[in-house]
Every structure is written in C-alpha cells, then in structure tokens.
Design brief:
Elements: E1 8-9, E2 17-20, H1 26-38, E3 49-54, E4 91-97, E5 103-106, E6 113-122, E7 125-131, E8 134-140, E9 145-148, H2 150-154, E10 157-160, E11 165-167, E12 173-175, E13 179-187, H3 202-208, H4 212-223
Antiparallel strand pairs: 1-2, 2-9, 3-4, 4-13, 5-10, 6-9, 6-13, 7-8, 7-10, 11-12
Bound molecules: 2-oxoglutaric acid and fe (ii) ion (FE2).
Organism: Penicillium cataractarum
InterPro entries: AlkB-like, AlkB-like_sf, ALKBH4, Oxoglu/Fe-dep_dioxygenase_dom
Pfam families: 2OG-FeII_Oxy_2
C-alpha cells in the first residue's frame, strides 16, 4: 500500500498538488514504454492519442461513456494504480504525446469525477496551471505521480502547450521527446460538487441553468473576462 504520507504537497500556488517522485524505477518505465510501443493498438493519426481502461472517458459529456462496457485493467497497468484512495479508479486513460502534441487548458469535469491523479512516463513536459491572469508552470518529470486536489483540481485549469520545445524557468529550451501519461479518475460516489465555481464547475453551472453546450464556452469566456455576465 502506497502511503499517503509519501505524497508531498508542492509548496506553491495552486494549492492541492500532491507529488511523488520515482513512483516506479527507470527499468520498469522502459518495460512499459516497450509495451506501449509494441503491444498496444494506437490510432494512426497525428497529435495526442488515448487508450482507455476501466470505464471509457466520454469526450462528449466529459464523464464516462455508458455504452462501453467496463474493461479490466491489463496486467501492466495493475502495479501502476494508486492505492492511496479507498478503492481503485473507475477510469484510466493512457495518453501518448509525440513531440509537438499537447492538451488544451481545461478543468476535468467536477460533476462526474472526484479524485484525479496523473503518472508521467518518457520525456518530460511542462504543464501550465492557470487561474485568471495567473500562470504557474510545473515540470512533469518522468516517473512522477501527481494528484490534483483542492484548488489545483477545482479552480485552476491545466494544460500542456502544443510545442516541440519547452522553455524552462532559466530560459533554456528543452526539446520534447515521446511522452506518455496515465490519468486516473474516480467517479463521485454520492453527493455533488459543492465548490460553486460558476466558471469551472459543471455542477454549479447546471444548477444555474446554464445549458450543457454552453458550459465549456463559459470557461473559455472566463479567459476573456466576460464570465461576470453570468454571475
Ligand atoms: O498528460 C497529462 O499529464 C495530463 C492529461 C490531462 O490533463 C487529462 O487527461 O485530463
Ligand atoms: Fe486534465
């Protein structure tokens, strides 16, 4: 059992990023990359690619797809499951980022999901957290496990820029290389998100009567500071 105390909260804004270096060792990482590159079937298209285990992530509702049956975790995934929650995750997503791929700034939906973790493998990449005008870069180093809780989960967006080089804090450019991440999501079991953030919380937006289709538009609008009109 991975102890909760092995995760350390980063002493930064946003609050709520819990971090563990060396979740696995480099040999284990190499074995996984060999499996990812040789044994898994990836779509044949450029950009970020995803494979799903457990329930399947639904890109229309940002919850789980009720029409796709639960898939058991493959053997290689089992030792990579965080054991710091009371049960295994419901949705696991393996993503491949070739150099130049990214993920747009977003908040993982509050309505369907509660806890959220991400394991980084292969090349490092910089993730940017944003809240209004604030920007905080976090280097996602290989083999690190990150839990996004608290403000980092609910009130800041996170994303990875689509670029072939990251610019580090000291100004140096670091080329991106192949990166994989595994994200773990736990469905909310009972109760709703009560954070009340009308810009980023799909539950708060639903209660306000904002139509489903307009909810992500509201988050985009916030970046342009026009969310006030909904408050
Ligand atoms: O690739 C990562 O580390 C994070 C991906 C992410 O934010 C997501 O899948 O929601
Ligand atoms: Fe995310």
């Amino acid at each position: 059992m991975e102890e909760r105390s092995k995760f350390k909260e980063l002493p930064i804004q946003p609050q709520g990023i819990f971090w563990k270096d060396d979740f696995i060792d480099p040999e284990h990482e190499q074995q996984l990359i060999t499996i990812f590159q040789n044994e898994l079937e990836w779509a044949d298209r450029p950009g970020r690619l995803s494979l799903h285990y457990g329930y399947t992530f639904d890109y229309k509702t940002f919850g789980i797809d009720p029409d796709i049956p639960h898939k058991e975790f493959p053997e290689w995934l089992q030792p990579l499951i965080p054991t710091t929650e009371t049960r295994p995750p419901d949705q696991v997503c393996l993503q491949y980022y070739p150099p130049g791929a990214g993920i747009p700034p977003h908040v993982d939906a509050h309505g369907p999901y509660d806890q959220l973790y991400a394991l980084s493998l292969g090349g490092p990449a910089v993730m940017q957290f944003r809240r209004e005008e604030e920007r905080v870069d976090i280097d996602l180093t290989p083999r690190s496990m990150m839990q996004m809780a608290g403000d980092s989960r609910l009130h800041w967006t996170h994303g990875i820029k689509k670029r072939k080089n990251d610019i580090l804090a000291d100004g140096t450019q670091r080329p991106r290389t192949n990166r994989w991440s595994i994200t773990y999501r736990w469905l909310r079991d009972g109760g709703e998100c009560e954070c009340g953030n009308i810009v980023h919380c799909d539950t708060a937006q639903r209660r306000l009567g904002v139509e489903k289709e307009k909810r992500s538009v509201l988050a985009l609008a916030a970046e342009a500071s026009v969310a006030d009109q909904f408050s």
